[in-house]
User: What shape does this take?
Amino acid sequence: MSKNSSGGSHVGSASILLIFAVLSLVSFATLTMASSKADYNLSNKLISRQQEYARACHQGNAFVAAINSGYETQTSDGIIRESVPINDNQALDIAIMQKSSKISKNSGNTFKVIQWQIVNISDFEYDATLPVMP
Assistant: This one.
């Protein structure tokens, strides 16, 4: 009578399966943490960018209101221009032109905004290299 013991191989395969399951869970958890950290950093950058743009728009609206209320400034060809800095690299360019006639009788606006645009004020040198280890 010979006894075949094949019970030990099933216990080993269950242990290997458990080890692979734990390793995959740890890998996915690490990837999730890295992704959430990147999303958090991007969200903070977007918040600061939106705050800078809102501040520039507020200053631009104050400029337009001052011109509509009679503030005198230099014009070129009947166009009043203003550049409001957003950050070190961008500015909000505003151009206002006097209307020939009022569109609305109830409105005191005699000027029309013809440009409200974000422009780059510095040259960008984009990094096109990929940081790949040799």
